Predict the 3D structure of the following.
Amino acid sequence: MTASLRRLARSICFQPVCLVLFALCVAARPAAAETRLLRAPTVSDTQIAFAYAQNIWIVPRSGGLARRLTTFQGLTSNPHFSPDGKWIAFSGEYAGNVDVYVIPAEGGEPRRLTWHPGADLVEGWTPDGTSILFSSSRDTWAARPEPRFWTVPLAGGLPAPLALPRGYQGKFSPDGTHIAYRMNNSWDEERRNYRGGQNRPIWIVDLKTDDLVSPPWTDSKDMDPVWIGKTVYFISDRDGVANIWSYDTTSKALNEVTTFTGLDVKTLDADKDTIVFEQAGYVHLLDPRTGQAHIVHITAAGDFPWMMPHWQDVTKMMTKVAISPTGKRVVVQARGEIFTVPAEKGDVRDITHSSGSAEIEPAWSPDGKDISYFSDKSGEYELVIEAQDGVTPPRTIPLE
């Protein structure tokens, strides 16, 4: 190691002043008439519930201003209405672990139903509304967790496993005689057009005879099955973009219901006659009788401490370290910002100052005067070349 590299290592590892200065001022989000990034919607006869900003919200089916049901600083997710619309089951980390909770649809104190240290992910309800269906790997080998289905009574009590040895993302048929489900989860649920061995078809199993049928399948990623009558609706990327497909268990007909060509459908749920799904950050309602879908315009307003301007220590988030040609400074990527740090004397410089976008992959020019990086500030990644002093306006080069 050269002397300059040793000095640089000492600077990064042992100079507390540099590390303390490695912080990011997060900008507040401007007020907006409509909120995006609404996740995992669920629907009842009159309302829609969804996950946003780590909490569960509820809004009329017509949309409008949503009301926050939970105010927990940890994660709450996977909301599902009970068949009568009076309860919402969800997974929450109130006690430091992901467990099953229920909350009245009109609001109130969440009630905990599971207590195992394994993660319990709410999938839905039994058709009679007396129990919640969830998936958990609580009884499998820790080094290779494999989820299976369990039910827990709404009134409280011990969870009971279904006879199926493995199961993930499943729903009971309206008459309770069948279940449609995915056999296994995958290491990256968001990966697009994955065609590896973790993909499996949707399985539809008769719970009395164990007979199994599947929609026609080759190698697509098929997810989130739900029932309306005797038809199973599910997400599939078999046409390159994740859309909603239907499979009639009587006629065996397979049809593509939505035809998005850009962003994927992410999650879906259903009540007895309506499908609700997430796409492009919006909540959509779909009438399966007509095949017509529309966006539900929703605003979720609240006091989000993490959205307010504040200093964020990023010293433990530094990646993509590159030493300047002179050895006097190092450029690093941290939490979507580009910084340069002195080897010995000087200030830490935040080159990008852009908390609303991601700047990645910094590199020095051969003469050490400029830094290049990629930025998605415009909505698509572009190449940016900027003077290392952070004073001269940067030059942006679109990628084609």
